[in-house]
């Protein structure tokens, strides 16, 4: 197995080897087909959603702009992770350059945090729409979307940036084989000869601070929404109010559930196969991306009608 020897520095290291599912190599064959189908579904569905929102003037509203941002994040995450995983499965292309590995690490950490933050902003959007409907046009407007996008980008680039930087500064003087399908921070850092306590603590602190604060604010938003909905007296008002945010809530629940299962499998890693967290980590980059546009397309009437109009134009 390929490895680089260097006593004190990482100057001799030119690439890593991604060696995933070594304990269950048959997984690669069985996973390659559903993973490739999910990847194509995620790319196609998000592309259709972006084109629909771009072409339909009736969808040029803040809520749909935020949904477009979510689709862009999903596309980037999928393209960052899945093609390389499929190349490993199909062509045994395990090698990844030093710079490409840390770039992938940065994108994964930053864009997953951006996605969580986007869900939080969308929850705030639904809170204002249901709890303060008269103030909605003055609060949630195009300027709000621009400011929210800048905040999402700045927060989730600045704070996760030290993760790949700290990892890249370590000395890799032993082997270069990463026991993972992707360049996850701890999978890479544990190959180093240096003390990685700072890396571990920083990722733990940033992960729980960013994702944890987003989940708390999302939970608070939906608690206030539920309380406001239960006070509605008009006939059918409760069902109408809940339908406006049901799609969003389903996606947040799914995103959070996969993340929670991933964390729990790491906590209980001594009792389960090490390949399970690796599998969940890969799936977390493609399943939400495939489901997000589908759930919105099926449950949001305006998007469904917009897609139908585009299809009619395409056939005419």
From TrEMBL:
Transmembrane stretches in the record are: 27-51, 63-90, 96-124, 144-163, 205-229, 249-268
Q: Which residues form the G-protein coupled receptors family 1 profile domain?
A: 45-296
What top-level branch of life does the organism fall under?
Eukaryota
Q: According to its UniProt record, where is this protein located? A: Membrane
Q: How does it sit in the membrane?
A: Multi-pass membrane protein
Q: What is the lineage of its organism?
A: Eukaryota, Metazoa, Chordata, Craniata, Vertebrata
Keywords of the record, alphabetical order, are:
G-protein coupled receptor, Membrane, Olfaction, Receptor, Sensory transduction, Transducer, Transmembrane, Transmembrane helix
Q: Name one GO molecular function term.
A: olfactory receptor activity
Q: What is this protein called?
A: Olfactory receptor 56A3
Its Gene Ontology biological processes? Answer: cellular response to lipid
A GO cellular-component term linked to this record: plasma membrane
Tell me the first and last residues of the signal peptide.
none
Gene name per UniProt: LOC101722506
Pfam families with a match to the protein in the record: 7tm_4 (PF13853)
Broad class of where this protein is predominantly found: membrane
């Amino acid at each position: 197995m390929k490895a680089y020897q260097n006593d004190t520095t990482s100057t001799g290291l030119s690439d890593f080897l991604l060696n995933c599912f070594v304990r269950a190599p048959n997984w690669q064959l069985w996973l390659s087909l559903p993973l490739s189908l999910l990847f194509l579904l995620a790319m196609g569905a998000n592309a259709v959603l972006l084109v629909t929102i771009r072409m339909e003037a009736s969808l040029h509203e803040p809520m749909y702009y935020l949904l477009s941002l979510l689709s862009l994040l999903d596309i980037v995450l999928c393209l960052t992770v899945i093609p390389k995983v499929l190349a490993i499965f199909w062509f045994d292309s395990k090698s990844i350059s030093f710079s490409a590995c840390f770039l992938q690490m940065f994108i994964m950490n930053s864009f997953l945090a951006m996605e969580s933050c986007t869900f939080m902003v969308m929850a705030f959007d639904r809170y204002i729409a249901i709890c303060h409907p008269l103030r909605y046009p003055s609060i949630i407007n195009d300027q709000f979307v621009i400011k929210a996008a800048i905040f999402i980008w700045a927060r989730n680039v600045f704070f996760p940036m030290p993760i790949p930087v700290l990892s890249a500064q370590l000395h890799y003087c032993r082997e270069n084989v990463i026991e993972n399908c992707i360049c996850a921070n701890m999978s890479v850092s544990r190959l180093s000869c240096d003390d990685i306590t700072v890396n571990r603590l920083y990722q733990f602190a940033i992960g729980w601070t960013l994702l944890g604060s987003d989940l708390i604010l999302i939970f608070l938003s939906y608690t206030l929404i539920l309380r406001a909905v239960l006070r509605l007296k008009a006939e059918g008002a409760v069902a109408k109010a809940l339908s406006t945010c049901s799609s969003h809530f389903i996606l947040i629940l799914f995103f959070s559930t996969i993340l929670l299962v991933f964390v729990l499998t790491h906590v209980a890693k001594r009792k389960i196969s090490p390949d399970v967290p690796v599998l969940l980590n890969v799936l977390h980059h493609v399943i939400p991306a495939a489901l997000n546009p589908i759930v919105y397309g099926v449950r949001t009437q305006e998007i469904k009608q917009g897609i139908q109009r585009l299809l009619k134009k395409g056939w005419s």
